[in-house]
Specification:
The protein is about 75% helix and about 0% strand. By secondary structure, it is mainly alpha-helical. The chain has one domain.
Length: about 120
């Protein structure tokens, strides 16, 4: 189960890193948004930290996964709220990204929460 949790953390971190690069105007031009770039970058770092913790301390995999994904879900809900009230970027790709990543984060949290509390202690 720890491999699955780590896979979620890695995928989510990559998704937020890519979103941050898009909002930095590095990957796709025309979608620059400094506040979104910073928020997505911070979330990516937190998810990567959760992944590193799960690798360095396998017994912490479940806790690290819950903490990192919970933080990411909360941050993404804030981002979705800013889109809804018109403060955040409101492009179609932004809306699709937020809906998709909210589903992935919720799925990852459910998988992580259902794991045994010692998931990762034996490296499996």
């Amino acid at each position: 189960m720890s491999k699955t949790i780590r896979l979620f953390l890695a995928f989510e971190a990559a998704a937020f890193l890519i979103a941050s690069l898009v909002h930095s105007d590095y990957l796709i031009h025309g979608y620059a948004h400094p506040r979104a770039r910073i928020a997505e970058g911070v979330i990516a770092v937190v998810l990567l930290a959760g992944l590193v913790c799960s690798l360095v301390r396998p017994g912490w995999t479940r806790r690290a996964g819950l903490a990192a994904q919970g933080f990411a879900l909360l941050g993404t809900l804030v981002g979705a709220f800013t889109i809804a009230i018109g403060v955040g970027p409101r492009t179609v790709p932004d809306v699709i990204y937020h809906i998709t990543i909210l589903i992935v984060l919720a799925w990852g949290l459910v998988v992580t929460a259902r794991a045994r509390p010692d998931a990762g202690a034996r490296g499996g």
